[in-house]
Specification:
alpha+beta; single chain; 744 residues; 17 helices; 5-stranded antiparallel sheet
Length: 744
C-alpha cells in the first residue's frame, strides 16, 4: 500500500464529529423519540376523551340538580298560592256575613262564634279566626265563646290596617299566639270597613306554622335539601328542616343572614343560582320563586356535594381506569424504548470513544505518534505537528524514520525486525533520544513507547499491534539541568567557603573572647590585688561584653549549621521543670535590674522528656530573655507548663511587655529580623534568637507559636510532641511508643 493510500485510510478512520453516533445513531434516536411520542399522544388522547366525558357528566349532574330544585320550588309556590288564596277568599265571605248580622258588633256573640268556628274547621291550615274591634280589643274568636279581653292594638297588622285603608291582604311574621300558649301562628289580615267607609276593625286569619312546615316537609325530595317559605322582606315563615340542615347548621334564619340570596330575592326575579351558604361554608344550588299575587317567596336548596355524589363516584371509577391504562401504556412504552436505547448505546459507544480519544490526542501538550507493526505512522496529533514541523497529512503513512536522525535509523529498523511481544526492554520505559525536525535540526526528547493490541481483525492475520509513542521536547529541561549543575557547583563552593570562614571565625573569635572573659573574671575576683569600684565596674563590663559577643558568635554558628542541615541533636532524658528553673536563674538578675517580676507558675510534677538539653534550654533562655528585654519596668514575666490533651508538653512564657505589631508577625521567625530595624532602635540583639528557637523546636518535631497584642503583652508557647513525653518508667522515645501501643 502506498503512502497516499495509507493517508486516505487514516482519514477514513477518523470518527465522525457530527450527530450522536453518526447517521445510524440519529436514526435510532428518532425511532425512540417516535415511540415515546406515540405513547404520550395515545395517553393524551385517552385522557382527553375521559376528561371530556367526566366534564360533560359534571354538567349533566348540575343541570339535573337545578331542574330538581326548580321543580320543587314550583310545587311549593303552587301549594303556597293555593293555601293563601283559599284563606283570602274566606276573608270576603266572613266580611259579608259580619256586615249583615246584627250581632256582629256585639262582643262574643254566640252566632258569630259558631260561624267562625265552622269556617276554621273547614280549613286545616287555619288555627283561628279573630275579629278585632276598632279599639284593638277582640270582638269574636273562633276558638273561644268568651274570647279573652286582650288588646291587640300593638300587633303589626292592626297598625297597618288602621293607618292604611288600601293595605289589602297583609301577611305578618310568625308570632306567638296569646290564646294558644306555645303555638306559633302566621297572621293574615284584612281591614273591616264601616258603611260610611270608616275603620271598623281588622279581620285576622291565623295560619298554623306547623301546617306550613308539614307541607314543606311533604314536598322536600332530599334529606339534604332545604325548603323555605318567606316574605318578600326576608322574614322566614316556615323552613324544612326546622332551623337548618340535618347537621344542625342553619341555612338561614332570615334572608339577611344570606346577603347574596337576599339581594337576588329583592330583585323580584325568579331564578336558580350556585351560592355558598354563609353558615355552612359549602356550595348549594338555590332556586327561588315569588308567589303570584302575594308577598311571598319560596326557596329550595340542594348541597352540591349531594347533587354531584353520583358524578364523583363515576369520576373515581373512570380515573382508576385512566390511571390503569396510562400505567400499562407507560410500561409498554418504557420497555420498547429501553430496548431501543440499548441499541442506541451500542451504536454510540464506538463514536463516543473515538471522539474522546481524538479529543484527548488533540488537547495533549505532548506529541503522540502511533505506528503500525511495519513502522508506518498512523496518528500524528497537533502537538507532534508543532514539534516536528510536519502536518498530519504529510506524516501519516510515512515511515517513522522520517523523525529519526540518520545515524539512529538503522538501530530502529533492527529493533522493529527483532521485536518480540513481552521481550522488549523499550516498551513501557522512558528513554532520552534525539529527534529530527523537518528543517533538519535535531533536539533531545523524552520517548515513552507502549504497545496496543487491537482485536477484531482478520481471523487469519490475528490481532494487530500498534505502538504508541508519547514524545516530550526536553531541550529546555536539558538547558535548565546544565544551569542547575553549574549553580549547584557554585553553591557548594560558596558553602565550603562559608563553612571554612565560620570555622576560622569560630577559632579566631572564640580564643581571644575566652581569654577576655577569663581575664575579666580574674580581675573581678581581685586575684592580682584589690580593685576600686570603678575598676570592678569596668571589669564587669568587659566580662558582659565578651559573653554577649560569644553568644552572638555561637548563635551565628548554630544558625549556619541549622541552615546547612548539619545540626545534630544530642538527645537524652531530661526534666523540663529543672531546665525552666535553671533558665530563670540565668535571667533573674537582669529582671531585677529592670524592675520586672519573674514568676515560675509551674505547679505539680512535669513528666520527663526526650530532648537535646542544650537546645531545649537555649529555646527557653531565648524566650525568657526576650520577655524580660521587651517588658518595661513594673511589668511581669510568667512561665507555665502543662501536658496538653494530645499528650504533648507545652511550655509558655507570658509577659506584659510592649507586644508585637500585626504587620510584623509574618516576619517574626525570620533570621536577622527585628520589629525595630532602625539605626536608633531601643532594643539590642541580632534577631537570631526566635529563628534558632523555632528551628530547634522543629528539629524535635514540635512547634513554636506566638500570641501577642500591642500594649498588652506577648505569650510564646513551645510545644514538644507526645512522642517525646516520657512516663515514669520510660527511658526514651522507643519506650514511649511501646507504652502507647500497649494502651491501644
Amino acid at each position: 500500500m502506498s503512502s497516499g493510500d495509507r493517508g486516505s485510510e487514516a482519514a477514513v478512520r477518523r470518527p465522525a464529529t457530527g450527530g450522536r453516533g453518526g447517521i445510524g445513531g440519529g436514526a435510532l434516536a428518532s425511532v425512540g423519540f417516535l415511540m415515546v411520542a406515540s405513547g404520550i399522544a395515545f395517553i393524551l388522547v385517552v385522557s382527553a376523551l375521559i376528561g371530556f366525558g367526566v366534564w360533560q357528566h359534571h354538567g349533566e349532574a348540575k343541570d339535573h340538580a337545578r331542574q330538581t330544585v326548580q321543580h320543587l320550588a314550583r310545587m311549593l309556590e303552587e301549594q303556597t298560592v293555593h293555601a293563601v288564596a283559599g284563606a283570602d277568599r274566606l276573608f270576603t265571605d266572613i266580611a259579608y256575613v259580619l256586615s249583615i248580622r246584627a250581632d256582629a258588633r256585639q262582643r262574643a256573640a254566640d252566632g258569630v262564634y259558631r260561624y267562625l268556628n265552622d269556617r276554621t274547621e273547614a280549613f286545616p291550615q287555619i288555627t283561628a279566626i279573630v275579629v278585632v274591634g276598632p279599639d284593638g280589643r277582640i270582638l269574636h274568636h273562633s276558638a273561644d265563646t268568651s274570647p279573652p279581653d286582650v288588646d291587640l292594638s300593638d300587633r303589626g297588622y292592626f297598625a297597618v290596617h288602621r293607618a292604611n285603608a288600601d293595605a289589602g291582604l297583609y301577611i305578618g311574621a310568625p308570632t306567638a299566639s296569646r290564646v294558644f300558649p306555645g303555638k306559633s301562628v302566621v297572621p293574615l289580615s284584612r281591614r273591616l270597613t264601616t258603611p260610611d267607609g270608616g275603620f271598623g276593625g281588622v279581620l285576622v286569619i291565623l295560619l298554623d306554622t306547623v301546617y306550613l312546615n308539614t307541607s314543606l316537609a311533604d314536598l322536600r325530595t332530599s334529606a339534604h335539601g332545604t325548603a323555605t317559605l318567606a316574605l318578600d322582606d326576608g322574614t322566614v315563615l316556615a323552613q324544612q328542616p326546622p332551623g337548618g340542615t340535618p347537621g344542625g347548621l342553619p341555612v338561614v334564619r332570615g334572608l339577611s343572614d344570606w346577603p347574596e340570596l337576599a339581594a337576588a330575592v329583592a330583585a323580584r326575579r325568579d331564578g336558580t343560582l350556585d351560592l355558598v351558604a354563609p353558615r355552612e361554608g359549602q356550595g348549594r344550588i338555590v332556586s327561588f320563586r315569588h308567589a303570584r299575587d302575594f308577598p311571598l317567596v319560596v326557596i329550595t336548596t340542594l348541597p352540591e356535594d349531594v347533587a354531584l355524589a353520583d358524578w364523583r363516584r363515576d369520576t373515581a371509577a373512570w380515573t382508576f381506569i385512566l390511571v390503569a391504562m396510562i400505567s400499562a401504556i407507560a410500561m409498554l412504552t418504557w420497555y420498547v424504548v429501553s430496548q431501543q436505547q440499548r441499541r442506541e448505546q451500542d451504536q454510540a459507544k464506538l463514536a463516543r470513544a473515538s471522539r474522546r480519544i481524538r479529543g484527548i490526542l488533540e488537547s495533549m501538550m505532548d506529541a503522540v505518534v502511533t505506528i503500525d507493526a511495519r513502522g508506518r505512522i498512523e496518528t500524528f496529533n497537533p502537538a507532534a505537528e508543532r514539534m516536528f514541523g510536519y502536518t498530519e497529512a504529510e506524516a501519516v503513512g510515512q515511515s517513522v524514520g522520517l523523525l529519526i536522525p540518520e545515524g539512529f535509523r538503522a538501530d530502529h529498523g533492527r529493533w522493529m525486525q527483532e521485536y518480540r511481544p513481552g521481550a522488549s526492554r523499550i516498551i513501557g520505559q522512558d528513554r532520552e533520544v534525539l529527534a529530527l525536525r523537518r528543517d533538519g535540526t535535531t533536539f533531545p526528547m523524552n520517548l515513552a513507547v507502549s504497545e496496543l493490541v487491537l482485536h477484531g481483525g482478520d481471523q487469519e492475520s490475528g490481532p494487530s499491534r500498534v505502538f504508541v509513542g508519547v514524545i516530550r521536547d526536553i531541550t529546555v529541561r536539558k538547558q535548565k539541568e546544565a544551569e542547575l549543575l553549574a549553580a549547584k557547583s557554585q553553591a557548594e563552593m560558596a558553602n565550603r567557603a562559608k563553612s571554612e570562614f565560620l570555622a576560622n571565625m569560630s577559632h579566631e573569635l572564640r580564643t581571644p573572647l575566652n581569654a577576655i572573659i577569663g581575664f575579666s573574671e580574674i580581675l573581678d575576683s581581685e586575684f592580682f590585688g584589690k580593685l576600686n569600684d570603678r575598676q570592678k565596674s569596668c571589669a564587669k563590663d568587659i566580662h558582659d561584653s565578651g559573653k554577649h559577643l560569644l553568644d552572638i558568635v555561637n548563635a551565628v554558628l548554630d544558625m549556619s549549621k541549622i541552615e546547612a542541615g548539619r545540626y545534630e541533636l544530642t538527645e537524652e532524658v531530661m526534666d523540663p521543670a529543672e531546665a525552666v528553673a535553671q533558665c530563670l536563674m540565668m535571667v533573674r538578675d537582669r529582671a531585677q535590674d529592670g524592675g520586672i517580676e519573674l514568676r515560675n507558675e509551674i505547679t505539680g510534677r512535669l513528666p520527663h522528656v526526650w530532648a537535646d538539653r542544650r537546645a531545649f534550654k537555649q529555646v527557653l533562655l531565648n524566650l525568657m530573655s526576650n520577655a524580660v528585654k521587651f517588658t518595661p519596668e513594673g511589668g511581669s514575666v510568667a512561665v507555665r507548663a502543662a501536658v496538653g490533651e494530645d499528650g504533648g508538653l507545652a511550655v509558655s512564657v507570658a509577659d506584659t511587655g510592649i507586644g508585637i505589631p500585626k504587620e510584623f508577625m509574618e516576619h517574626l521567625f525570620e533570621p536577622f529580623r527585628q520589629a525595630d530595624n532602625s539605626a536608633s532602635r531601643r532594643y539590642e540583639g541580632t534577631g537570631l534568637g526566635l529563628s534558632i528557637s523555632k528551628n530547634f523546636m522543629e528539629l524535635h518535631g514540635g512547634t513554636l507559636a506566638c500570641d501577642s497584642a500591642v500594649g498588652v503583652g506577648t505569650t510564646m508557647t513551645a510545644r514538644l510532641p507526645a512522642s517525646r513525653v516520657l512516663t515514669a518508667d520510660a527511658t526514651g522515645p522507643a519506650d514511649a511508643e511501646k507504652e502507647t501501643e500497649a494502651a491501644e
